[in-house]
Each structure stands twice: as structure tokens, then as C-alpha cells.
Design brief:
Blueprint (H helix, E strand, L loop, with lengths): L6 H51 L4 H38 L3 H4 L54 H85 L3 H13 L10 E7 L4 E8 L8 E7 L4 E6 L2 H26 L7 E11 L6 E3 L3 E6 H4 L9 H7 L3 E2 L18
Parallel strand pairs: 2-5
Antiparallel strand pairs: 1-2, 3-4, 5-6, 5-7, 7-8
Length: 422
């Protein structure tokens, strides 16, 4: 019977677990924050009262000091009682979740749309957008205007103006000749400089295009791998849908796995399933593996003991533990039957043979084994007529002719072979 959960069932199960964990974390954070705020408020009240008592002690009367001490002790006692109440609230929520295992699934449509399991590839953005834009071409070199000769202004004064003017013209002319020579050299070198600048630009642009092409090839290859994986995944989903339509045993078995993997139980009572399908009889054989009895909350309530300043738990009676564990097993059995039958809209699964129990250490051998504590067989025709919102789970199992352990807490196993098939 032992069989690993199918690939798609595992994906679905992990997703549901992630969703459940996220919701649980949000609830726990809110509850923790509320508890912290209560504790802080109580601690602050106790601190203020203690400070008042200390500050007033020197000037207060003996009666006043005793009153302040009583107030501080009362505030501390309230804080400790609040801690016990927080633990009781957590205990209540855990017990309610286990007591409502069956009810939790009745308002949920357990049908799994396999099309919804298909995936759409999501590629990350191209990691080198800087390479996609061409390098800006530098501004072409421009030859400045050629120098133009200009006569120097005539010098002022009454004497020697011509001589001074001639000397000034000679100086200006020499400067003009030098600037003209520099301009001609610049003019003559311009084509070579422009060609060098163009070559440098083209080299940089060529390297950019080559690097872009290489990065694009690398990116496209990664995208192709992702797309191939998604295509293969979706093709397997299509194959599963087609196989389910034709009643192929492996496809039916995989679908049952997905349905049961989609059922997420409370953190304090996690359940896993193993299933097979016999196409010749239309029967699904399911094993629901539950926590062992010691995993149930064994404390009835918490309280603060003033004398020892401890928060202690009052243990539940053996009778209470037995009843709660047996009821949990019965709820798991009915929930499993309900989820498979409801999810199978084609009616391919005509009956279910189910075993429920823990897989734990055998006290006699010390080895791991499965302990069947509930065994039940049910036909679709009979079971879908039940109103599960109004049943007593153990009574429903008796009605179905189930075998139920007389002492589930002690792991007293039943004989699954003698179970009547409805």
C-alpha cells in the first residue's frame, strides 16, 4: 500500500501548505501582538504601582506601604493569570480545530480543476538593458573659421604715428601668420582625426552589439529552458486530463492523490494519504495516516499557581483523550470519503476502501509500522446521500459497518479484512 504521493499531488499539497502556513502566521502574529500588548499594559501597570510604592515608602505610613505592596502583588498576579489565559486560548483553538476536522471540509468544493494546475512561464526581465541602446555617435569634428587679417588701429598721438603703425602691423602680421599656420595644420589633420574618432566609435559600437548578442543568447537559452519545463509540465497535465477522461487507472490514482493532497489539516493534527485505484472494480484503496495519540493536546486547562509562581496544566483524563482521539479518527475517515467522492464528478470511483491510523514505533518491536485503527468501506451511491453536517462521525462509521479500535489511544489495531463493503 505504501506509495509516494504523485508529482502533481505534491505540488498541490505544498502550495496548500504554504497558503495555510501564511494564514496561520498572520493569525499567530495578530494573536502574539495582542498578547504582547496585554502583557506590556499589565507590566506597565505593575511597574508604575511598584514605583509608586517605592517612592512613597519613605514617607508613607506602615499601612500605606502594605497597601502599595498589595497593589503591586495584585498587578503581578493579573499578569501571570493573563499568561495562563493565553495558553488556554491556544489550547482551545487547537482542540476546536481537531474537533472540527469534518466540518472544515463541508463548505469547500473538493473538485480540483486540473486546468488550473497548468503554469504560465514568467521570464525575468533582460538583465542588461544598458546594452540595448546604441552608443551615441560623437559630434563630428568641426573646423573653426580661418583667421582673417585685420589692420591694427592707428596709434594715437601727434608724433611718429606712421612708424608706430608700421611696427604694430608687423606684430599683427606675425601673429596672423602664426594663427593661419595653426589653422592650416588643424585643417590638414582634421580628416585623420575624424577617421580615428569614427573608428573608435565603430569599435565601441561593434563590441556593444557583440556583447548584446552574447547576453541575448544566454538569456534566450535560459528562457527556452524555462519554457520547455513549463511546456512539459502542461503537457503532462493534458495527458492526465485525457487519461482521467478515459478512466486510466494511473490517471485516476493521480487525481485522487491531488484531491487528498489538496486537503490541508490543522498544524496540530496533520494527515497524509496514500491511494491506489483498481479500474476493474472502480474501487479506490486509501490509507489515511494520522498523528499518534500522544500528539493530541493532553492538557485540559492551564492555571497559575501562586505558591510556586508556575503555570501548570491540568491533565486530561484517559477517557477524554480516548474519546477525542477516536472522534478525530472517525472524522478523518468521513472527511476522506467525502472529499474523494465529491471531487470525482465523473463518478469513476464507485467505492472506497479506507484505513485510518498512525504510522509510528511499535512498542513491541521498536520498528516503524502502520497501526490500522479504523477500517471502512463505502459505495458512492450510499455515501453521497448522507448529510454529513448533522452526523455523529462514530455513529456513521458503525452504520457503514466499519471496524473501529476499542482502545485507539493504546494502539489496539483492528482487522481490516472483515470490514463490510457497502
Amino acid at each position: 500500500m505504501a506509495r509516494r504521493r504523485g508529482f502533481f499531488a505534491e505540488i498541490q499539497h505544498q502550495q496548500r501548505l504554504a497558503d495555510a502556513r501564511a494564514a496561520r502566521v498572520r493569525r499567530e502574529r495578530a494573536a502574539a501582538q495582542a498578547a504582547v500588548e496585554r502583557s506590556r499594559a499589565q507590566a506597565e501597570r505593575a511597574r508604575v504601582q511598584a514605583e509608586r510604592a517605592t517612592a512613597s515608602a519613605a514617607r508613607a505610613s506602615e499601612a500605606e506601604r502594605k497597601r502599595l505592596e498589595r497593589e503591586a502583588q495584585a498587578a503581578y498576579a493579573e499578569a501571570r493569570k493573563a499568561e495562563a489565559e493565553d495558553q488556554n486560548e491556544a489550547l482551545r483553538l487547537a482542540n476546536e480545530a481537531i474537533a472540527g476536522l469534518l466540518q472544515a471540509t463541508l463548505d469547500v468544493d473538493d473538485y480540483v480543476d486540473l486546468e488550473a494546475l497548468k503554469q504560465v512561464v514568467e521570464h525575468p526581465p533582460f538583465p542588461h538593458p544598458d546594452l540595448e541602446s546604441p552608443i551615441q555617435r560623437p559630434v563630428p569634428l568641426v573646423l573653426p573659421p580661418a583667421p582673417v587679417w585685420q589692420e591694427p588701429p592707428a596709434p594715437k598721438g601727434l608724433f611718429g604715428k606712421r612708424k608706430k603703425h608700421d611696427e604694430l602691423k608687423q606684430e599683427w602680421w606675425a601673429d596672423f601668420q602664426a594663427r593661419s599656420g595653426e589653422w592650416e595644420r588643424l585643417r590638414d589633420s582634421l580628416p585623420a582625426r575624424q577617421a580615428a574618432a569614427d573608428r573608435q566609435y565603430e569599435d565601441l559600437e561593434r563590441r556593444r552589439r557583440e556583447q548584446l548578442a552574447a547576453e541575448r543568447r544566454r538569456y534566450d537559452a535560459a528562457c527556452n529552458i524555462r519554457q520547455k519545463d513549463i511546456d512539459e509540465h502542461n503537457a503532462e497535465i493534458d495527458s492526465l486530463i485525457a487519461g482521467l477522461g478515459y478512466g486510466v487507472p494511473e490517471a485516476v490514482q493521480e487525481y485522487v492523490d491531488i484531491v487528498l493532497a489538496n486537503s490541508v489539516y490543522p498544524e496540530d493534527f496533520e494527515v497524509r494519504h496514500e491511494a491506489t485505484f483498481d479500474s476493474s472494480t472502480g474501487e479506490a484503496r486509501v490509507r489515511s495516516i494520522v498523528p499518534s495519540p500522544e500528539m493530541l493536546p493532553a492538557v485540559k486547562a492551564y492555571r497559575w499557581v501562586k505558591a510556586s509562581d508556575e503555570i501548570v496544566g491540568s491533565p486530561s483524563t484517559k477517557k477524554d483523550l480516548t474519546e477525542r482521539y477516536t472522534d478525530a479518527l472517525a472524522q478523518v475517515a468521513l472527511r476522506t470519503l467525502h472529499e474523494v467522492f465529491e471531487a470525482d464528478r465523473r463518478g469513476i470511483v464507485r467505492s472506497i476502501s479506507l484505513e485510518v491510523g498512525p504510522a509510528t514505533k511499535d512498542p513491541a518491536t521498536g520498528l516503524d509500522r502502520f497501526f490500522p485503527l479504523v477500517a471502512v468501506g463505502a459505495s458512492r451511491e450510499q455515501f453521497i446521500g448522507f448529510d454529513l453536517s448533522a452526523v455523529v462521525p462514530v455513529a456513521t462509521l458503525q452504520h457503514l459497518g466499519a471496524a473501529v479500535s476499542k482502545n485507539a489511544v493504546a494502539l489496539s489495531v483492528i482487522d481490516p479484512g472483515g470490514v463490510r463493503r457497502s
